[in-house]
Amino acid sequence: MAGYSNQKVFILYEDEHLLVVKKPFGIESQRGKSFAMDQESLLRGYLSSKTKTDNPYLAVVHRLDRPVAGVMVYAKTKKAAADLSAQLQTENFSKKYKNSLSVWNKLGYGMGEAGSQFIWSLISSYLTLYYTDVVGLLPAGISFIMLIARIWDAVNDPMFGAIAENTNSKMGRYRPYILFGAPILAVLNCLTFLNLDLSSTGKILWCAITYIGCGMAYTAVNISVGCLANSMTADNRQRVSLNAFRGISQAAHRNIYCCIMGGIVQILMGAVTMPMIMKFGQGSTSDGRGYFLTAVIFSILSIPCFLICVAFTKENIGNKRYQKRDSTTLALFRSFQYTFSDRNALLLILAELTFLTGIFGRLGIMAYYFIYILNQPKMIAVFATAMSAGMMIVNFYAPFLLNRINKKTVGAISSLLQALCCVLFFFMGQMRMSFVIVALGFAYGATNLGGIVSYTLGAEIIDDNWLRCGIRSDGVIYSCISFSTKLGNAIGGAVGILAIGLVGFKANTQMSTATLTKMNAVINFGPAIMFLMAAVLFALNGMTNELGRENEEKLKEKMVE
User: Fold this and answer.
1) 11-89 domain in CATH 2.40.50.140?
2) How far is CA 275 from CA 227, 290, 348, in A?
3) What are phi and psi of 208, to 5 degrees?
4) Burial of 358 (0-12, 13-18, 19+ CB in 10 A)
5) Structural class in CATH, domain 103-326+334-365+372-395+402-556
6) Rounded to an integer, what distance in angstroms lies between the CA atom of residue 41 and that of residue 48?
7) Mind listing the pLDDT tens digit for each residue in 437-479?
8) Which has the closest alpha carbon to 185: 209, 221, 161, 158?
9) What pLDDT sits at residue 316?
10) Among 543, 154, 552, 486, residue whose Cα is nearest residue 345
């Protein structure tokens, strides 16, 4: 009887001796000490109803772990059980595991981050400048908006992560949020850069509403993209590869095919963003039309990237459709409980927060350096292009490093090198020589491994937590990393713009040399301090490559053919 199925059992083949079934995720192969339903009991129930006997014979020939989905063979007679056991011992009977991802899977995953990059690059690099030079907001007003947004994110981001990891859908847990969230994110990104003729209070409210709304949509889409790597494969080497595919598409974060694809996206963004703003703004960096039209174009380009991501990826690990589900409230509570009780997860989140505070703190006010300190706004494109080229190089050598050196060590070294680049930029940038800007920009990008370290190390921490606690917290951990991204952007941006305001910055005016020197210090020394703190936090993490490999051996069966 082939093809029999109900909510719990799917029989692929049956005769008088054998029963071949598809075991789903989240159910034990045979009876255990717990009261949870198991595959053996379900099959006995099926046979009992079919044969009208109370205790039909059924032998468990081999087993798959609870988190594993795949094909299993059961024996219906003692002779079949003995024959199959003998085959197992002579290796004539074997299990095959699917651990590889195709180039198309990786390209699709990388396109998801490319779509996010089209959106977030404009916000992370130019929103503060847009608020001061176009909208006319004071630094204190900008700090207020970012503070309110981050308070909301503190609630919204982890909550969304917990909701997503407990989502029940035919498409999986995360892909629906990418599909339906992409157009909403695109529209809100455009509205964020729409300068309406309002009163001062009205401008602050409009900016706050659009910025918070865009951040919420970005949370839904980008957290889902981040979680896909861990849901697509249990192989840590492939996760590193996936995040290399992902990373080069992302300004502050992350097989070679995707390096080329993502590198083109990142270099393109760095090279054309400010020229586009000035082109549409009739040569000015303070014309709102330039920012709005640039946002419209980037938003349109992001949508097909997200659609390709949905089309060419598949969630294979931990699909909740196959697991016994607690109530939504209980599931959310447990996800948070196991995440925040994990020392390594907390250290990773704090390291990512401080690292990204340095990255985004500098990135958010870097435009002021070129426009006001160097008086060379077009050099923004040169610096961004050099930095992006450096970040493309990262993804060629990062997989080699991360698979041979403890990921936490790579994160600590990367943080120290980022701090050194900032210090050198303060002193050498004053020379106003293009080749110096290019060299430092390239070095700054080529030493930025914080993002790819966080996502690959996070994946191993999730697996370790799952093995120890039985709870998979992809959504919560990645939402916390995403929250760290936005919080780092807010802290760095808000404190940065407030600091340059305190040292004498005035939009669209000529400032003294002393004021410009103080602004230079704020832009470079502040982030350097954050990088040094991140180095310490990475170094303190207890997760090692050796432990990750041990866990991988236990979980690699998740990808069963």
Assistant:
1) no
2) 34, 9, 37
3) -65, -45
4) buried
5) mainly alpha
6) 10
7) 888 889 998 898 887 788 788 778 877 777 776 666 665 666 6
8) 221
9) 65
10) 543
- Point out which residues pair with 23 in neighbouring strands: 70
Asked if residue 444 lies in contact with residue 270, where contact means CB atoms within 8 angstroms, the answer is no
Distance of CA 28 to the CA centre of its chain: 31
Name the residue ranges covered by the structural domains of the chain.
11-89, 103-326+334-365+372-395+402-556
**Which of 280, 523, 247 shows the shortest CA–CA distance to 390?**
247
**Alpha-carbon 451 to chain mean position:** 8
pTM of the model as a whole: 0.61
- Give me the sheet containing 18-23, strands edge to edge: 11-14, 18-23, 70-75, 59-60
The Cα angle at residue 475 between residues 256 and 332, in degrees rounded to 5: 170
SS3 assignment, position 16: coil
H/E stretch holding 97 reads: none
Tokens 């509570």, residue?
333
Residue 317, by phi and psi: left (phi above 0), alpha (psi -120 to 50) or beta? beta
With b for 16 or more beta-carbon neighbours within 10 A and e for fewer, the 153-178 pattern comes to: beebbbbbbbbbbbbeeeebbbbbbb
Euclidean distance between CA atoms 92 and 90, whole angstroms:
6
Answer left, alpha or beta for residue 432, where phi above 0 means left and psi between -120 and 50 means alpha. left
Query: Between 169 and 318, where is the model more confident?
Result: 169
* DSSP tag of 132: I
pLDDT above 80 for 5: no
